[in-house]
Amino acid sequence: MRVGIGYDVHRLVAGRLLVLGGVEVPYHLGLLGHSDADVLVHAVMDALLGAAGCGDIGKLFPDTDQKYRGISSLVLLSRVAGYLGERLWTVSNVDAVVIAQAPKISPYIEQMRVNMAREMGVAPEQVSVKATTTEGLGFAGRGEGIAAQAVACIRRIK
Predict the structure, then answer these.
(1) 8 is in an annotated binding site
(2) Taking CA atoms, which of 66, 72, 76, 102 is between 20 and 30 Å from 82?
């Protein structure tokens, strides 16, 4: 078994959709990025790749490559799962936290779990998503951005 950690942060801006865990969360701001800027899925992908010793998402999906502009991060997560499978790794479990002062995301967490589990080829019970605020402190507390952290365990395919 191997363990990896992931972290991602994106700035909140007007004129973009807010996508977290593949769910469009209603909010007046969205995350700025080359893809859909889904910080939750990005942190999960980095945790998975780190566990396998395969670098990070920037290595696999560089933001200089136009084919990834606006792409759904769930598509990229599916590709990461396939990439790990080719190297004989499978996801054991993922635990992630979204760090944001607003909006409230608890109503969307179950769908986020289902979405990410589907793309990784695991059961939703193997994916945990939590949310927290920073009590008004830092960039997340001021509503300037959203961050996510993830830990992933992978194991060899038998």
Answers:
(1) yes
(2) 66
